[in-house]
Amino acid sequence: MTPAPRSSREILRAHLREMPLHRVIMRSIEARILGSVDYPRPILDVGCGDGHFASVVFPDGVDVGLDPGMEDTVESSRRGAYRLVVRASSTAMPFAGGSFGSVVSNCVFEHIPDIETTVAEIARVLKPGGRFACTVVGNHFNALLTDERGWARLGLSRAHRAYIDWFNRKSIHYRWDSPETWSARFQRAGFRIESWRYYQSPPAARAFHRAHYLSIPHLVARKLTGRWVPFPSLYDRPYWIRKYLPFVDEPPPERGSCIAFVCSLK
């Protein structure tokens, strides 16, 4: 099953109406990429989070969402994007072997300490020939996040390194692996790499970084109202669409901050 096609503009507007701006940029790009993949049913979403991403990519719903977080699983259940939401670790999934035709995982693996066990578990719960699609933070993430040369010209190279370290700690990033390292990891678990590509070009990566600070009002709104965007019409506007749509529509860059993979189980 290939998700019903949505235009880049529709994807972007769906995120602008509910998500903070830094998530708008990255998640809109990822939704366009993962929305083009064919997913045999039933589908498992590993690291489903609050369910918003699945609601955009899979308008017909996803069979099962899995996440370890209580708050996220409650929110994703309320959103209704999944037929079943399970609170469990990706390193010990409560499913029988060969339960799923597809597994999708969006920008989750960089946050998991024991990634080898997680990938092995995904292989276990997939049917032979099943499809596995994921997005991950890649080996160019740190270099593309900010203008390192600009910091160096100001004599702030050490401060720049400290800032990048702080940013990744706040983001709970454990790894920034190359396509070759990710491919080898997937192949060891029994996957065949069908395709991979970079995404989020240098300009998009810088915009993503700046948007973290533009998203401070979203954080305040979340604490006060429980919603990132209490008034969707404030951000679902031509200005933000013009500003971010070129990033959503950009072709695969030679260097990108993140990587998308499509694999199948041998």
The largest sheet has its strands arranged as: 3-2-1-4-5-7-6
How many strands, which pairing sense, and closed or not: the largest β-sheet?
7 strands, mixed
Helix content: 40-55%
CATH secondary-structure class: Alpha Beta
Shape: globular
Number of helices: 12
Task: Write out the CATH superfamily name.
Answer: Vaccinia Virus protein VP39
Number of E strands: 7
Order of helices and strands: HHEHEHEEHEHHHHEHHHE
Strand content: 15-25%
Number of structurally distinct domains: 1
How would you name the oligomeric state of the polypeptide chains in this document?
single chain
First-residue to last-residue Cα separation: 20 Å
Overall residue-averaged pLDDT value = 96
What would the CATH topology be? Rossmann fold
CATH architecture: 3-Layer(aba) Sandwich
Could you say which structural class the secondary elements and strand pairing correspond to?
alpha/beta
Characterize this entry briefly.
This protein is an alpha/beta fold.
Reconstruct the topology from this structure:
Layout: H1 8-16, H2 21-34, E1 43-46, H3 52-57, E2 62-67, H4 70-79, E3 82-87, E4 100-106, H5 115-125, E5 126-137, H6 141-145, H7 148-153, H8 157-171, H9 179-188, E6 191-199, H10 202-214, H11 216-225, H12 238-249, E7 258-265
Parallel strand pairs: 1-2, 1-4, 2-3, 4-5
Antiparallel strand pairs: 5-7, 6-7
